[in-house]
Amino acid sequence: MKSTGVRLTTFLTLFLLAALPGAAWGPTAQTTIVAGAARLMAREHAIPLTNLLDDIRAGAEVSQVELLELLPEAGTDPINAIASEMYLLQAVRTTRVDPYYAYRLGVLGKLTAQVSAPMLDAEATYRTLYLADVERSIGGVVYRHAPRRSVDPRTYFPLVQSQAGARRQLVEKDYQEGVGFRGIASKALSEDVSRSINAVADVWYTILQERVRVVNISKGQMRTYYINALEYYIQNRQVKETEASHARLEALGVQTPDLRKRIADMFYDSRQFERAIEEYEVVLQEQPGRRDVVERIAGYYKEVGDKALRDDRLEEARDAYQSAVAADKLDADAQTSLVEAKRLISDREDRLGEDQAALDQAAALEREAEMQARTGDYGRAMEVLQEAQMLYSGVTTEFPDETRAAQSGLNSVVRRMEELRGEILRNAQRLSGTGSSGDVRALARTKSRELAEEALRKLMRDDYEAYLKELGDTMTRRLEVR
Amino acid sequence: MATTISCPNCGKVTNAHLDNCVHCGGALKKAPRHGDTAAPGRSQTCPNCGALVQEGDIICVACGTNLLTGQQIVDDRPLVAEPESSGFPWLVVGLCALVVLVLIILAVVLLGGDAVGKAEELIEQGQTLEALEILDKHLEKKPDDARGQFLRGKLHWLGTQYEHAAKSLDQAATLDPTNEDAAVLAALSYAKLGDDRQLAKAVAVLEPLVARSPANGEAWQLLAQVRGAQGDTSGQIDALRRAVTLRPAEMRPLVSLGIARAVAGEYAAAAGDLAKGASADAAAAAGMVAALQGNAREAGASLDYAVKGETAIQKEALVQLGMLQLAEGSPIEASAHFGQALRLSPGDGTARFFNALCFDAQGNSRDALTDLESLSKGGGAYAADASVQMARIYLRMNETGLALEAADRALGLGAEGVVYHTTRGRIYAATGEADRAREAIRAAIKADPQYAPAHLENGLLYVQLGMPGEGIQELRRYLELVDPSLPDALTEQVRALVDHLQQTMPASQRTGSSAGRIAS
């Protein structure tokens, strides 16, 4: 069922390809041809394209739409499109083949394969059938070598196309008569495929080995190429290549704030935020306060802050919100989030302080308990340890270091209490006399009352005597006057 | 044999045994006076009839007594009418005698009227004894002379002869109710005499005075003091309240009122009164009141102030400060105050006893034992308590022999109560005499079932005897009763022991034992 579905899909694809003008070779055949050309270049000319085979394949596997986006002329004048691409690639060529360059070679190889394919002018029905058969048989093809030739597309491809179309009528006839692919087509397949491989190899050879043609490649084309390269690398997260492309774009001297913004957006969309922010910052240096950039930066930092907040990384959240506010002072959400993050940090620091204080206090109590135990006051030691136990138990699990310390302290306290309990039983009779210090206090209280009452009576007596003397003196003086 | 005399009033001969003359009805006898036994010849009255005679007289014209010999010329003839035949000469003699007698009486009256003035003159000349002699003679004849009585009372008061002063002044006050000084001095003199009877007389003088003169603050205050001395605190308070009202500017009545109220147990009102008094004594009293109210902090502050101001009860204030601090669990500070008290009064048993307890609380058992030993052997109020404390200290030092000796001495000194019995129980438990220990602890719990240490010792004894169930019960009782804030309460240790004992028991017995307690 599944294989039926796959076959149906392949058929429909081929049908559509066949329906397009100039479209030939199925996707598998195209990839095989392009990859074969790459291996050929490596083997025959020591051009290490096999290292970049993935990029080449990626280029060979672009959709027809993508192909037309890169090479707009390919739909109407594919040979000219090939020529233009060859010139462009020669113009941007450096001492090494970078991945995007390999990708563009792949794209060019795909177009070359299409242009050099047989049955280009065949009736759509037969072409479709033929392409489908080639897709199934491509694995059995044997490459037939041909010497490398320098390619001038305008002369080279008509000849190739002529050779490729030489058996068209015979093949069509085979299909009409029901012989189908088993006839001429299958016998000529290796030759047909080898022709395309050689064509691709010749084109690449011409680009890579021959002197650069003096062709007027505009800066706009170059800029587009580098931007596409940049986008390619950004999407594939090839940092070094990204930077190299960026440098080349810079060297080209066509940078504008909008272009930077576009590049920054590429970074941003591929989630390379830090790099994107760097680019945005440069944009802002050139165009201070540019609203869309400011909002983008602030939005990024808010996202970072929100994520950090969700993960309870409060300082990071605070710093991110701080950056958001710094980027866009008008962003009320960022302001609110910053205040909230600061409050959460302050609250957490308070809790941390409380936990640390509890740990310190508990540790001090443990030391005190040991001192009490050394003096034989096990009861007091137990009481103190219980206090320490409560403090350790009260430490939150929010802070890992403090939580570990509390757990360790708790274990220590529990163990020590068990030891002290054992001591207590061994020394039970030593408890005799316990609690009797209250006797002295009680006695002092009782005698205090008695003493107070007696003292008041004495004061009253003294007062009486003093008054009698005082009044007596007064009266005596009065009598002496009288 | 009938004795005859000449009537001092009419001169006629009459029976000496009668009170009144049969002729004129005049009084023949003066009421006998204590101390009226002056020697013949020196007295100015006849020793036989009491009539006034002049210095140099030999025969009393009133009764015919020879003032030199004391012999009376007696007419032994029966009391019959004289025959008319005796005639004229006797009539003339009689008339002459009558005239002489009248003259004498007039002289005596005139002379008597001047006695107080003369006494005053003599006082001014510094001849107080002579003045007093004159007044005595004068008042013997004229006891209702208020002025004379007051003057004599004054002389006695100034001579600190309070008994005599009291009589004369009381008389003077009775005779002249307007003389309030006389009444106050009379009461004061009675008060100086001090005994209950005299205090009652003082009150008897003062109460009418304040009734007549309710604005006399001095009298109210004296009345209050005397009532206080009588033990009538309620009456004292009433009088002091009047005195305070009448003398609002004076501190003394207010402080006296505060003290009186404190003695009467009216602590809140007393505190209010005493707070207004700024003296050291007022502060001392306020401190004592606060101590009685259980307010140790306020008591401490007031007593500190009182001690700095050197109150009249300095020693008591220092001892009280010490006891308050000891009761609060501060033996070092307490000891400092007891030490000061002992410097003021080295023989003070209370200070020495509690100072010894402070020594012990500070770990200085040697000095504690020295002081307790002296108290124990001194036989004072703290002898028994000191012996008990010695026993406890020796027990702690594992000197069970000495501990037992001290406990025995305590018993001999009359020691009893829960602390003594518990200590004795501990000693026996330590020496392995379980039965005696059990008996002593039983007595302790009986004396005070709420005394936590007795239950602890009971529990430990059970544990020692291998009866954990009963031990747990008693130890739990201890935990219920003990004040956990005591430094040696060791509740956690006891609780741990209980837990451990629980674990050693079979599961079926863990929830509590059905066995009775030793002391139950």
Structural class of chain A: mainly alpha
How much helix is in the residues of chain A? over 70%
Could you state the order of secondary-structure elements of chain B as H and E?
A: EEHHHHHHHHHHHHHHHHHHHHHHHH
Total number of strands of chain A:
0
The arrangement of helices and strands of chain A along the chain is HHHHHHHHHHHHHHHHHHHH
Strand order of the largest sheet of chain B: 1-2
| Rounded radius of gyration of chain A (Å) | 47 Å
What is the quaternary state of this protein? heterodimer
What is the end-to-end distance of chain B?
92 Å
Largest sheet report of chain A: none
By secondary-structure content and strand pairing, the structural class of chain B works out as: mainly alpha
Number of individual domains of chain A = 3
Overall description:
The complex is a heterodimer of chains A (482) and B (520). With 482 residues, chain A is mostly helical. Chain A has 3 domains: 2-217, no CATH class; 256-330, Serine Threonine Protein Phosphatase 5, Tetratricopeptide repeat (Alpha Horseshoe); 355-427, Methane Monooxygenase Hydroxylase, Chain G, domain 1 (Up-down Bundle). Chain A contains 20 helices and no strands. Chain A has helices at residues 2-19, 27-45, 53-60, 64-70, 78-92, 99-115, 124-137, 153-164, 168-177, 184-209, 219-236, 239-252, 257-269, 273-286, 291-310, 314-327, 332-374, 378-393, 400-426, 437-481. In chain A, helix 2 runs antiparallel to helix 3 (53-60), helix 5 packs antiparallel against helix 6 (99-115) and helix 18 packs antiparallel against helix 19 (400-426). The longest helix of chain A is centred in the C-terminal third of the chain and has 45 residues, at 437-481. Chain A starts with a helix and ends with a helix. Chain B is mainly α. Chain B has helices at 88-113, 115-124, 128-141, 146-158, 162-175, 180-193, 196-212, 217-230, 233-246, 251-263, 267-276, 280-293, 296-308, 314-327, 331-344, 349-361, 365-378, 383-396, 400-412, 418-430, 434-447, 452-464, 468-481, 491-504; strands at residues 4-6, 13-15. In chain B, strands 1-2 form a two-stranded antiparallel sheet. The longest helix of chain B is centred in the N-terminal third of the chain and has 26 residues, at 88-113. At the A-B interface, helix 18, helix 19 and helix 20 of A face helix 4, helix 6, helix 8, helix 10 and helix 12 of B.
